[in-house]
């Protein structure tokens, strides 16, 4: 099983990806949510100049956020900068769509988008939204069609896994979204949140809350659809959210999403929540979880470091994973 990493991109992420390569991580993906994070394609372009081996990818692009041509061009450009080590993940959308006040795409749209994205990258002409389109890069642009960029699907339920089985080169899934995270045969990337505990460190430690809190807060954001359904913490968080004017709730729900913990979330990031919603634990516990995921069918675990010291999180997880 490969060990990769996943970033909520900031202006420092290119350097963190270079550090991840030195530590032995095989993959580095970044989220694409422009209302929250640094630009995904720009971040990976800068990372390409700092690395030589690690695979680079966006997880995820969505039909409702960027036009198909924009993402196809981004992927082809990144493939020219980092040949043979680019992945693209397509999904229905969660935070990126919510922050535009929209719902995620239908899975039929995701399936169509995957097929069209692959065709455009390969240099084909396609019909899209009533027009014939293609990537027609000039010969001196340094860009050329690519057919070696895997396109994966971000899938967390039966419809997503069905689409992935039909048209994608694998799946990226999140155990927080479902009690059955890997009902899929083939390349399966499982995301992991949390922090590696130091000797004698407690789940209530401020450092642990800062580092594991963003992943734990994701479960609060999922509410009754996530692993904390029915808990006092979810009820308390939802009660606070109900006090926010309705037209702003989507903004406040996702403020600091996966990158920090807001003052309003912090009272609900309890040791029980961290234990239930993240893969936080001592090094031996991390190793045991990785072994369990491998036995369950994961081919890659993508660890998302968070908190104020990303380098520490990368080093600690790499050591626990035996990189």
Automatic annotation (TrEMBL):
Pfam families: Bac_luciferase. GO terms for molecular function: oxidoreductase activity, acting on paired donors, with incorporation or reduction of molecular oxygen. InterPro entries: F420-G6PD/mer, Luciferase-like_dom, Luciferase-like_sf. Keywords: Oxidoreductase. Residues 12-177 form the Luciferase-like domain. It comes from the Bacteria. This is LLM class flavin-dependent oxidoreductase. It comes from Streptomyces phyllanthi.
């Amino acid at each position: 099983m490969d060990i990769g990493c996943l970033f909520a991109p900031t202006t420092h992420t290119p350097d963190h990806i270079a550090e991840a390569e030195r530590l032995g991580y095989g993959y580095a993906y970044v989220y694409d949510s422009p209302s929250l994070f640094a630009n995904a394609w720009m971040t990976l372009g800068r990372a390409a100049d700092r690395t030589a081996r690690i695979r680079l990818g966006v997880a995820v692009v969505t039909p409702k956020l960027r036009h198909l041509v924009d993402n196809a061009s981004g992927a082809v450009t990144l493939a020219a900068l980092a040949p043979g080590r680019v992945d693209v993940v397509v999904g229905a959308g969660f935070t990126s769509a919510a922050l535009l006040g929209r719902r995620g795409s239908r899975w039929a749209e995701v399936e169509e988008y995957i097929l069209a994205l692959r065709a455009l990258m390969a240099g084909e002409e396609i019909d899209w939204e009533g027009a014939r389109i293609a990537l027609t890069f000039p010969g001196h642009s340094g860009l050329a069609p690519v057919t070696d960029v895997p396109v994966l699907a971000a899938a967390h339920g039966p419809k997503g896994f069905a689409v992935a089985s039909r048209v994608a080169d694998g799946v990226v899934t999140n155990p927080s979204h479902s009690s059955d995270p890997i009902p899929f045969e083939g390349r399966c990337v499982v995301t992991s949140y949390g922090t590696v505990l130091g000797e004698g460190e407690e789940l209530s430690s401020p450092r642990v809350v800062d580092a594991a809190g963003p992943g734990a807060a994701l479960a609060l954001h999922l509410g009754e659809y996530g692993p904390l359904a029915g808990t006092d913490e979810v009820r308390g968080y939802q009660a606070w959210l109900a006090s926010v004017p309705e037209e702003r709730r989507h903004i406040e729900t996702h403020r600091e999403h996966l990158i920090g913990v807001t003052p309003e979330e912090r009272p609900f990031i309890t040791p029980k929540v961290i234990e239930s919603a993240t893969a936080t634990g001592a090094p031996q516990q991390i190793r045991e979880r990785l072994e369990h995921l491998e036995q369950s069918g994961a081919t890659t675990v993508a660890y998302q470091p968070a908190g104020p010291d990303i380098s520490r999180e990368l080093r600690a997880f790499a050591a626990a994973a035996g990189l």
